[in-house]
Specification:
Blueprint: H1 2-15, H2 25-37, H3 50-62, H4 67-88, H5 92-101, H6 104-110, H7 112-128, H8 133-147, H9 158-162, H10 169-184, H11 186-191
């Protein structure tokens, strides 16, 4: 019951926010209007991935008010995170607390396309717990679906490689070195 209350509240806060909350929200508001006026065949005239374009286009059929985009995306993302925590956390209250207190919810309100991609990927996590090739194929399809909202989701294909590695002292050391390298060279990596 706790998780339903917390994530319903998070979804309401995120979906009822003003366009002034977050740096990118105003941009998403403006582009919602733009996408509503673009024909389906001209989706490449905006810089967004097709999944996000299609979401905005479909929502424009329901309402020209961009608040519907915030409502749908926030509700979907909060549901996905809440479901993930419920199914995978041994302490849902603490996990929910971390989601809010580490400002992940705040980031989701600013990074809408990335948040939608992550929300889609969280549904694929359950597949990785199942043995066999079929769940991995479906996981790849989920990664492709997430890439329709943000192409950076492609990096989650590395999970298919990492899940088969044995965790040894050497792999622990390599993880530390890789993490430190990514931290130090993060701006160059993002530029790449």
């Amino acid at each position: 019951m706790h998780i339903i209350f917390i994530f319903t509240l998070c979804a309401l806060i995120a979906s009822l926010r003003s366009f002034n909350v977050g740096i990118d929200t105003l941009q998403y508001y403006r582009n919602y209007y733009t996408i509503g006026s673009i024909e389906w065949g001209n989706y490449d005239s905006v810089r967004y991935e097709f999944g996000y374009f299609a979401l905005c286009k479909l929502l424009n059929y329901l309402s020209s008010d961009p608040q519907i985009l915030l409502f749908v995306s926030s509700t979907f993302c909060c549901y996905s995170v809440g479901r993930f925590i419920y199914k995978n956390s041994c302490d849902v209250i603490f996990s929910s607390f971390l989601f809010v207190s580490l400002n992940i919810l705040g980031s989701y309100m600013n990074l809408m396309r990335q948040a939608i991609a992550i929300a889609i990927l969280l549904f694929g996590f359950d597949l990785l717990k199942k043995p066999g090739i079929r769940p991995r194929v479906f996981y790849c399809l989920i990664v492709l679906a997430a890439m329709l909202f943000h192409t950076s989701a492609v990096v989650m294909l590395v999970v298919l490689v990492v899940e088969n590695l044995r965790y040894t002292r050497l792999s622990f050391l390599l993880t530390i070195v890789a993490s430190a390298s990514f931290f130090v060279f993060s701006s160059q990596i993002w530029d790449l």
